[in-house]
Amino acid sequence: MIAEIGNFALILGLVLALVQAIVPWWGLKRNNPLLLQVTRRVAIAQFGFIFFSFLILTYLFVTSDFSVANVFQNSHTTKPLMYKIAGVWSNHEGSMLLWVLILALFGAILARPGSKMPEGLRIRALGIQGLIGFAFILFLVFTSNPFDRIFPTPLDGLGLNPLLQDPGLVFHPPFLYLGYVGLSTAFSLAAAGLLEGKIDRIWAGHVRPWVLSAWCFLTFGIALGSWWAYHELGWGGWWFWDPVENASFMPWLFATALFHSLRVVEKREALKTWTSLLAILAFSFSLIGTFLVRSGILTSVHAFAVDPTRGVFLLVLLTLAIGGALALFGYRAPKLKPLGSFSPISREGGIMINNLVIVSACLTVFLGTFYPLFIDALTGNKISVGAPYFNITFLPIMIPALVILGIAIALPWKRGNLKDVLYGLRYAFISALVIGTIVAWFFWTESLVAIFGVILAAWIAGATLTDLANRIRLEGPVKEVLARAIRLPKAFLGMAIAHFGVAVIVVAITGASFWRVETIGMMDIGDTLQAGDLTIKLDKAFLAREENYEKLQGEFTIWKGSEVVTTLTAQKRFYPVRGIETTEAGIKSTFWGDYYLTLGPRAKDGKLAVHFFRNPLVPWLWFGAILLVIGGGVTLIGGHRPARSGSEDETS
Amino acid sequence: MKRLGFYMPIALFAGIVVYLAIGLTLDPNKLPSMLIDKPVPEFVLPAIEGFDQGLSSSDLKGKVSLVNIWGSWCVACIIEHPLLMELAKNNTITIYGIDWKDPPGAGAAWLLKEGNPYTLIGDDADGRVAIDFGVTGAPETFIADKDGRIRYKYIGPITPEVWNEIILPIVEELQR
Fold first, then answer.
1. Fold of B31-175
2. A440-473: per-residue pLDDT in tens?
3. Out of A280, A373, A579, whose CB is closest to B23?
4. Domain that holds residue A487
5. Could you say which of A280, A281, A297 has the minimum Cβ distance to residue B28?
6. Partners of residue B2 in chain A, C-beta under 8 Å
7. What pLDDT is stored for residue A557 in this prediction?
């Protein structure tokens, strides 16, 4: 009975989404404020019903109602409460409900009373948001209904994949969805702006907070996913260029380009067509990513039960949504006129180049992700594109963007003098070279790219700090300097924090890629293994039985010369309910990097396969990602208010 | 002309949609084996716990055989198991098993419960040999000819239809 109520609430949400998709256009045509009022109320009510339906599914999971097929397949009575709740979004149907819930949430926030957004823009955007919502709830109800029942009711569920029983993965999907579903508002507002013919500084000011908040969530979601893969998969790496990872990374790149170019529209009323296209593309890539993950067309291993109707349904949805928006772009964008001149040597010029670089880099990721599919469609050959492709294409393309980043933040809007700016950055440049030399001297490695990576990171950090120092003006009494530092505009502070985060991430990636030390060996108790200047000793190994798994545990000591650096405990777990084996890596994080050890299978003679990594600077990666999120957040809450128009746009 | 440029994005997108649509009709699981018509990779596998003899590539020479990749953890393997048992009982064909990524003892326990259709079984606990075979998942079945060359690879459980329509004709052809 309860499942049916959930289903009913979902269907009511579907009906309301349809109302939200139709009424605004009618209201705008008739110029009827009552109908516009209805649109806003409906958007909020739609969220209410979907939220209710989501709560019911959660309740079904918590109470282990195995008469619901979805609960049976993904839960188990003995599971801890946290994982029962997380079970709601650990599967296709439930995560699609979460997707739709977040879409409705953003619609409701857009419709909230007291919004300063021009009414024409808001109502049109709500209409488009309703259309997307209608299509996806339709998909949910008819091809992936999470409330479907099974009969007879089984006694217990199949359990959640133990790999997914990790705190990182409890929070990873909600944040990821808040990110890429959040980009739907940018899409709707871009389409609404194009329909209205008003892509201007007011428009940009209203779109930017939406993009920035979605970007913060997406950054955090991707970082959590990467952290989970690093800690739980036991492969020693944190990014694998897997199609599913790329599906979230491409919208992230577009969103990054987008909020930079929105700034240009806001400041200079330039790059209007480019920005509106980016806003459409950012969410379009979220949709393509969703399609990629859900249709099973790129699943590399074992897609057992992929329902072909889902793929077709999603492809039709995606074609209508993206095709419709791009057609609108083709029709309306030529009418957008830029104001003012556009000089290449200026802040906006720098942002433009960075935008082009980021988008090209994103296209190489797109090509690599879809290449196997193109080849298969054309020739029938099955190939796969791996990390080497991405590493040699994506990374070099990104380098100019990072070099220019340092210069662009120092350039003024409108028109700058390159010579002055470069002279102002002389200390940043020199200190980057000095740091590069010091690193090369003490930690020499064969690869010059590694040294270049360090210099690049130091350059970005140096340029960011120089800019910060110039803004604060480091002169006069310390008290006054501090007072000036506190009074810095939050938008500026946020930008500086985020750019500093970029520097931290660049040096972390460089360190973890080029200074990694790795050894594999078969070990008996008492054996040692050499990895660079480190010695790994197996002290203890035993088999034991836990509540719902069996484990093989190895305990190790890491020595540097005659000194103990750390001890590590690694496990291999076997879960009989699902027949799945997981690896619990032994990880010790220090400021300068991680000691990372995983166990392989035990051989016949009792020896253990041991895989040891020294992963330098990996903790910096998480720290850098957190800086990005904090930077975005500070800019967002930092009182940067959208430019106000006159009064004619403000009807509420 | 300049206006047409604004329709470029949608034109590109239309092209992508065509590929995605074709992609939907393709099955990513249907991988051809690179090993077809090549000799089986050289391997020597130990016996699983409770058995005396393992399996090596030289065992495959002399007669047409099936090499079946399975594991006690593999749910789909149970589906094809009765058919394999029947083939073994009627001496239709020699079936060799590779016990893939099983913890010690698990494979033998499973065979005790479900019955053993295999003439010889190799223990591929770390999955190294399965990698050489290009195995993507269990169950997977290779048809080897009299010279120990791989002539066909089937991914997924062998149902009676698959046996009668795909595998048996190839086996009969090879046995001639």
1. Glutaredoxin (3.40.30)
2. 888 887 778 889 999 999 999 999 999 999 888 8
3. A373
4. 425-515
5. A297
6. 334
7. 92
